Input
Amino acid sequence: MADTAHFGSRQVPLEDKQALVDDVFHSVARRYDLMNDLMSFGLHRAWKDALVTAVNPPKRRTFALLDIAGGTGDVALRVIESGGAETHATVCDINADMLEIGRERAAARSLDDAVTFAEANAEALPFQDKSFDAVSIAFGIRNVPRIEQALAEAYRVLKIGGKFHCLEFSTVDVPGLDRLYDFYSFNVIPALGRAVAGDAESYRYLVESIRRFPNPQAFAAMLRAAGFGRVTFQQMTGGIVALHCGWRL
Ligand code: SAM
Output
């Protein structure tokens, strides 16, 4: 039987998933940042702050971050603003529309010298081995068809002693909150998507894809299998989000 992948709650041929995901982000790119604020009541900012704290860019030495599936550059720009003058971020994303918005945001904040945008697939990164001090991916990994391949690539481009950070929606484990979260996710978010981005289906996919993503223990095991050492995870907001970290030792 041919390989398949989850596209939300559907099983699709593995080689079809990326094009379906690309359609989602082409459709929502212009409203993506606004929708993040609305859907999460601004909480995505706190989750990303936790990621930036974990990345901990130094103030007084060179530091190169690769932000995979970096979309509109939100994480990269936060890391640059938190680090010193020698902090540089490379945002890679498979979607040119998301990157274009990132370029505009970087220029508007006069940060264009500190960030490079690259159109690339997380499964085949166009970067040399051991070239980044840190690698991050925020709310991106569940969209990638071959997650193991993307983790292997993240590991390959990290320097020895470098740290990988993955922020992703996870498994709610607080009784009561889980039902409220399900109701909100399946009823309110697609309606919000329709009203704000003119697209309920894309937001239905995003919600369904969250439910298909491995729980934190299982994802930590995938990081270890990819070669990362000292793997940890931190659950936030009742498990709505988890931040996984691992080192290339
Ligand atoms: N990291 C950003 C943030 O937190 O705001 C954007 C996250 S957005 C939910 C997911 C991103 O993953 C989209 O920009 C999409 O284009 C990107 N993406 C999906 N599949 C990808 C792949 N195979 N390689 C690189 N980027 C991918």
In short: The two ends are 38 Å apart (CA to CA). The pocket of S-adenosylmethionine is lined by residues 18, 21, 25, 69-71, 74-75, 93-95, 98, 121-123, 138-140, 143-144 (CB under 6 Å).
